[in-house]
Design brief:
By secondary structure, the chain is α+β, with helices and mostly antiparallel strands. It is about 30% helix and about 25% strand. This is Hydantoinase/oxoprolinase family protein.
Length: about 700
């Protein structure tokens, strides 16, 4: 048998999914994350999954990992101290930034401006200048370079970033600075903007390069440590890391370009959701990933996640390709509180995290959380994560009672219901950001809900959005790990042009696209992927001439087959996207800014699950009946063991469906149908229960 292993490290739990490629059978493990050394939790989870499968570690093949190491380094301000080398006259590029202040009028008064990742005292200028067309205006002064690098040597910097003006057009000066740095600052990791982001715009290119340098030492150490521990423990396969855009790269490539890993964790969930939704026949859907700390949402159209050109983590926004995921501070561990000034109930963004966790975990937490509210309402079983976390209902009631006292509500259940209603509205707002705000009607999409807490709130979110069916995947609590294990290797090549369409020809553009495709393929063929198995897609960042921003548009390579019309088709595609986003188009010449080619290896051939047919009656899976709070009052609800449900079973609400890694709540006047692939499809009872 051949096994693939998916690993997803979150803020609260580490999820492991072991997949038998021949049968599609899965074996899961969910263990507490170990922030001090994530590899500890990873190896512990691997042991649990192997024990469940009855195999030794040596039977595990390749390991596919979604990691938050880079994300946490940025969020917690624990990145390396970075030195920055820039062109003479551009020393304050990070301080000037984009002069953007979040918030309303006079927001700058209360907004604490974040410190740049490379301090001004750690930034040096070197003499030499490249023009925007790549020509050399002023030769690089190598003596000056050595002088400036020696000035950095005594400052205690741990990584070096090099970002010279217009280096996207000609990297020669940056490459020479790197060679000199290897002599003057030996052993230091170096990030060059011409490698990290060979694109227009000095600030975006510089901040992205500095961010790459800031997390590179930590990511390198983590990857090397995990690879070594896997090898020493008997795992013989290779380690691959998930990028923010949902593709995989080898561990070594990931360590060299960690800025592409900032949304590694959430991307795995979107990839896994696409895998699951395809099996149920739904190609357009919203994803809703609710964990212990936060909730991530995204929109997928025709099984293709929307890809953005910016990645935002905390206050940091970098120019890196990523799945268009929006995050809100709403998770199972989000803390409910009543500010004294407003006396209005709030939920999050503060979280109880993994330690001490919600009060119900009986691990020292006392503040009321979303998990505690669900315990009070009877929505959760007596233990989570396959028994690893026992729940204390009395501790949960005591915590939530503080909210009832502060708000004057007449019962602890009413306070808990208020917490759930508010957190649901917070997550509904996030779903609107990726749908309504982007010109999509959520009623035209299904809703795929996962994460440890997602299925508890999914039915309510379906009711708020009108997105049906609500799809609860098998093993929803470890779906991110499933996505890690069922995606493919990916790499991309980029070139900035800045040319009006009148300055371009179809043949010339096709030649550039072919060069980019060859570059993107090269990384994957070096990993042993046969070139004939690779699929290449193309995109262009376009704008109207005179605009200050671009919109990414897919490029139909077949339109550039020599018969003409390629640029015309590209322009029409841009107009259509511009109209969808802004409701108008301009009679202005189009301008191409950046071209991109992305190469993908084939997705793994993992067998899908096919459940035994069991008719509509789910009674054989019913394990108990208890009272829960639903729609304003206590009602009797059946509790089902999901592992006993069969294809075709229809579970009427109110009901609770339990499994090792998650719990699903079916509301009154709704029903969950078990799809042959194992997913639950929740719809209002007045809608068809088919497929």
């Amino acid at each position: 048998m051949t096994y693939r292993l998916g690993v997803d490290v979150g803020g609260t739990f580490t999820d492991i999914l072991l997949i038998d490629e021949d049968s599609g059978a899965t074996f899961r493990a969910k263990t507490s994350s170990t922030p001090e050394d994530q590899s500890v939790g990873v190896l512990r989870g691997i042991d649990q999954a192997c024990a469940a499968a009855g195999i030794e570690r040596s039977a595990v093949g390749d390991v596919f990992h979604g990691t938050t190491v880079a994300t946490n380094a940025i969020l917690e301000g624990k990145g390396a101290r970075v030195g920055l080398v820039t062109t003479h006259g551009f020393r304050q590029v990070l301080q000037i930034a984009r002069s953007f202040v979040p918030g309303g009028l006079a927001g700058w008064i209360i907004w604490p401006k974040p410190e740049p990742l490379a301090a001004l005292e750690d930034t040096v200028e070197v003499r030499g200048r490249i023009a925007s067309d790549g020509s050399v205006v002023t030769e690089l002064d190598e003596d000056d370079v050595r002088t400036q690098l020696r000035a950095l040597a005594g400052r205690g910097i741990e990584a070096l970033s090099i970002s010279l003006i217009n280096s996207y057009a000609n990297p020669a000066h940056e490459q020479r600075v790197r060679e000199i740095a290897a002599e003057e600052l030996p052993g230091l990791t170096v990030s060059m903007s011409s490698s990290v982001l060979p694109e227009l715009r000095e600030y975006e290119r510089t901040i992205t390069t500095v961010a790459n340098a800031a997390v590179q030492p930590q990511v390198k150490r983590y990857v090397a440590n995990l690879e070594g521990q896997l090898r020493d423990s008997g795992v013989s396969g290779s380690l691959s890391i998930l990028r923010s855009d949902g593709g995989l790269v080898s561990a070594s490539v990931a360590a060299d370009n960690p800025v592409n890993l900032l949304l590694s964790g959430p991307a795995g969930g979107v990839t896994g959701a696409a895998w699951v939704a395809a099996q149920t026949g739904h190609r357009n859907f919203l994803t809703f990933d609710m964990g212990g700390t936060s909730t991530d949402v995204a929109l997928v159209e025709d099984l293709t996640p929307r890809i953005g050109r910016e990645t935002t983590v905390g206050d940091l926004k970098v120019r890196a390709t990523s799945v268009d995921v929006r995050t809100v501070g709403a998770g199972g561990g989000s803390i409910a509180h009543v500010p004294p000034l407003t006396q209005a109930l709030r939920v999050g963004p503060q979280s109880a995290g993994a330690a001490p966790g919600p009060a119900a975990y009986a691990a020292g937490g006392t503040e009321p959380t979303v998990t505690d509210a669900n315990v009070v309402l009877g929505h959760l079983p007596s233990a989570l994560a396959g028994g690893e976390v026992a729940l204390d209902p009395e501790a949960a009631r005591t915590a939530v009672q503080t909210i009832a006292d502060a708000t004057g509500l007449d019962s602890v259940e009413a306070a808990a219901a208020g917490i759930i209603d508010i957190v649901n509205e917070n997550m509904f707002g996030a779903l609107r950001l990726v749908s309504v705000q982007q010109g999509f009607d959520p009623r035209d999409f299904a809703l795929v809900a996962f994460g440890g807490a997602g299925p508890l709130h999914a039915n309510a979110l379906g009711r708020l959005t009108g997105s049906w069916p609500v799809i609860i995947p098998p093993s929803p609590g470890v779906l991110c790990a499933y996505g890690d294990a069922t995606t493919s290797l990916r790499d991309e090549a980029v070139r900035t042009l800045v040319r009006r369409f009148s300055e371009l020809t179809d043949d010339g553009l096709r030649a550039i696209l072919d060069d980019l495709a060859a570059s993107a393929r090269g990384t994957l063929t070096a990993e042993g992927v046969p070139e004939d198995d690779l699929r290449v897609t193309y995109a262009a960042d376009l704008r109207y001439h005179g605009q200050g921003f671009e919109i990414p548009v897919p490029v139909d390579i077949d339109a550039f087959d020599g018969s003409g019309g390629g640029l015309e088709a590209l322009g029409k595609a841009f107009d259509t996207e511009h109209d969808r986003l802004f409701s108008f188009v301009l009679d202005t010449e189009h301008e191409l800014v950046t071209l991109r080619a992305t190469a993908d290896a084939p997705r793994p051939d993992v067998a899908s699950v096919d459940l035994e047919d069991g008719g509509t009656d789910p009674s054989s899976a019913r394990v108990e009946r208890h009272r829960i709070w639903s729609d304003g009052g206590l009602v009797d609800a059946d509790v089902y063991d999901r592992s006993l449900l069969k294809a075709g079973n229809v579970v009427p609400g109110p009901a609770v469906i339990t499994e090792m890694d998650s719990t699903t709540l079916v509301l009154r006047d709704h029903a969950a149908t078990v799809h042959p692939s194992g997913s639950l499809l929740i719809r209002p009872v007045d809608q068809s229960q088919e497929g």
